[in-house]
Amino acid sequence: MSERTRRFETIAIQSGEVPEDQTGAVTTPIHLSTTYRVAYPGDDSGYVYSRSANPTRRALESTLAALENGKHGFAFASGLAAVSTALHLLKSGDHIVASSDLYGGTHRQFDKVLRKFGLDFTFVDGRDPSDFEKAVTDRTTLFWIETPSNPLLRLINIAAVSGIGRQRGILTVVDNTFATPYIQQPLGLGADVVMHSASKYLAGHCDVIGGALVTSSDELGEKIGFHQNALGAMLGPFESWLVLRGLKTLSLRMERHSYNASRIASYLSEQDSVSSVMFPGHDNESLPNGMKLPGGMVSFELNVDFEAVKTFACATRVFVLAESLGGVESLINHPASMTHASVPPDIRKQNGIGDGLIRLSVGTEHIDDLLDDLEGAFKVLRATVTRDRP
Fold first, then answer.
1. With 70 as the cut, is the pLDDT of residue 5 above it?
2. Are β-strands 193-197 and 211-215 bridged in parallel, bridged antiparallel, or unpaired?
3. Could you give the residue numbers annotated as active site?
4. Lowest mean per-residue pLDDT among 28-32, 67-71, 226-230
5. pLDDT tops 60 at residue 275
6. pLDDT of residue 297
7. pTM of the model
8. CA angle 294-153-10, nearest 5°?
9. What DSSP string describes 325-346?
10. Is the dihedral of CA 229, 53, 237, 18 positive or negative?
């Protein structure tokens, strides 16, 4: 069976695994060497220095490219390092149109860091693709999409936005962290570059920080590779090995994440203190972009005061109050005070991130334990609200 005809699950397990010549090791070794012997001065035909290329990292990068149906994969020290490298493809004076509901760290980098270097940003809702088209200027060079978005799980039509970009010579980058390549593959929908925070579902165990970019374009691949080496924010060999190991179970984990999250979204919709539930496919919402599953993230709005919200967030015992997401462990997060605290309050409010918003990263534990845990937290919340009534 050729590499071309292999299915996702097989690629995830075998793509980066070439038995090592000396020992025949089936699992990719961790190559810690920073420098390599060369045949002659100026020889760059193989490995020279691990910032430029490392065998363990290269195994991961080739697997990431294969899983996204791309040609060139690049691994970075964090998701934000990947974001920064992607934006270094631009020049001072360029204009970027980005979806407004973004990870807080991405918004911070765009607004507080890259603006200082002459990049200009316009943030749009984006659920109507024409939002991007209306925001285009004669300096627009990039569309940045996050779908499903963080933390409101909004869905953006990748093919429609990418089509607008192609017609106008504008690149489209899609943050695919929440969906993963198992659920959707943006390059096949017209996107130019896919970005991941590999710390999340790709690694899957809350034990590594990493990021990734993947493209099918030889030209963009050459540019990203140059900037990865020049900026130096590449992923280390041990971290590369951890992500590569995590990818082997990605399909299994995403199936369980999605099942558990679907059950929890249904449960939350029945709670009197929940005013809205945000979950792809909820209330018969259609899934765009060929998404095969809704994913493992659920957000919901509590219709109680801020103190009661904090009480709820601290009342779970299986869900851990913590930042990040995408691990087998279930996490509960309060975006306004945690992951999106760096976003100015007026911008948070404008984007729909209120003080009552709770975001769940639903893990792979037994669904009954997760539901029991939430029920216990709601009991504490109800007792708190009743006690505080005049």
1. no
2. antiparallel
3. 51, 103, 175, 200
4. 28-32
5. yes
6. 98
7. 0.94
8. 35
9. --SSS-EEE-GGGTTTTTS-HH
10. positive
Copy the structure tokens of residue 248: 């082997």
∠ CA 132-335-156, rounded to 5°: 25
pLDDT tens digits, 340-356: 988 888 988 888 899 99
Q: Which domains does the chain have, with CATH numbers?
A: 3-247 (3.40.640.10), 251-388 (3.90.1150.10)
**CB-based burial, 210-242: b 16+ in 10 Å, e otherwise:** bbbbbbbbeebbebbbebbeeeebbbbbebbbb
CA 100 to chain centre: 15
Task: Specify whether the CB–CB gap between 93 and 121 falls below 8 A.
Answer: no
Q: Which residues of 139-148 are buried (b: 16+ CB within 10 A; e: fewer)?
A: ebbbbbbbbb
Distance separating alpha carbons of residues 190 and 376, to the nearest angstrom: 45
Quote the CA–CA distance of 280 and 295 in Å, as a whole number.
Answer: 8
Starting at the edge strand found earlier in the chain, the sheet holding 193-197 runs: 72-76, 211-215, 193-197, 171-175, 140-146, 95-99, 120-124
E strand spans, the chain: 72-76, 95-99, 120-124, 140-146, 171-175, 193-197, 211-215, 274-278, 297-302, 320-321, 331-333, 357-361
Q: What is the mean pLDDT of residues 162-183?
A: 98
Chain position carrying tokens 């407004």 = 100
List % helix, strand, coil for the chain (3-state, nearest 5).
40, 15, 45
Q: Is the pLDDT of residue 1 over 50?
A: no
| Residue 86 buriedness (CB in 10 A; 0-12 / 13-18 / 19+) | buried
Dihedral of alpha carbons 148, 149, 150, 154, sign: negative
- Mean of the per-residue pLDDT values of the chain: 94
- Is a pLDDT exceeding 90 seen at residue 3? no
Q: What is the biggest distance separating any 2 CA atoms in the chain, rounded to whole angstroms?
A: 83
> Which residue did the predictor score with more confidence, 6 or 301?
301
